[in-house]
Amino acid sequence: MPASQATIHPHAGGYIEFADEIAKLVEDIPADVAGLCLDTGHTAYSGMDPVETLRRYAGRLDYIHFKDIDPAVYDRTMQQRIRFFDACGQGVMCPIGRGNIDYPAIRDLLIEIGYAGYITIEQERDPRNGASVLTDLSASRQYLTGLEFAGPG
């Protein structure tokens, strides 16, 4: 990725969210103009398989965000038909390893495609409920370390 290249981050609850919108984006914007920052939590939340989405756009990946989804909270919030950030406030995004995203398969895919870029672990929630963010991020990092994801100390 060139140092000055734009990177587009499809986001649940945003203007570019669903599979057809990402496909159109990739069709309309050349790789040398903009890469992708794909997010495991946003892709899963929006009905995509994160592993297959990362595989499909491996050649466009400039950056990745890691999250996990609590399936019970997800099912409940989908039935309530509430906004994405309201679902985050209810805890739909949980520490990595406690949700339904297949991180061993993601690790294997990233090794397979030779991904050497950055990955950010995120914990989205209602900002008024930020007391356990550090604990949750630590749990996510510990889980990923157990899967032998490499990264700086």
Over the alpha carbons, how many angstroms does the gyration radius reach? 15 Å
CATH class reads: Alpha Beta
**3D shape:** globular
Helix content: 40-55%
Biggest sheet, open or closed, and with what strands and sense?
Answer: 4 strands, parallel
Q: What's the helix-strand series?
A: EHEHHEEHHEHEH
The average pLDDT is 90
- CATH names the topology as TIM Barrel
Tally of individual helices: 7
Structural class of the helix and strand makeup? Answer: alpha/beta
Give the strand order of the largest sheet, numbering strands 1, 2, ... along the chain: 1-2-3-6
What is the CATH homologous superfamily assignment?
Divalent-metal-dependent TIM barrel enzymes
How does this structure look, described?
There is one protein chain. The chain is of the alpha/beta class and 153 residues long. The chain has a single domain (6-146), classed as Divalent-metal-dependent TIM barrel enzymes (TIM Barrel), CATH 3.20.20. 42% of the residues lie in helices and 15% in strands. The chain has 7 helices and 6 strands. It has helices at 19-28, 40-45, 50-56, 71-80, 84-89, 103-113, 133-146; strands at 6-8, 34-39, 61-66, 68-69, 93-94, 118-121. Strands 1-2-3-6 form a 4-stranded parallel β-sheet. It has a two-stranded antiparallel ribbon with strand order 4-5. Helix 3 (50-56) packs parallel to helix 6 (103-113). The longest helix is centred in the last third of the chain and has 14 residues, at 133-146. The model has no long low-confidence stretch (mean pLDDT 90).
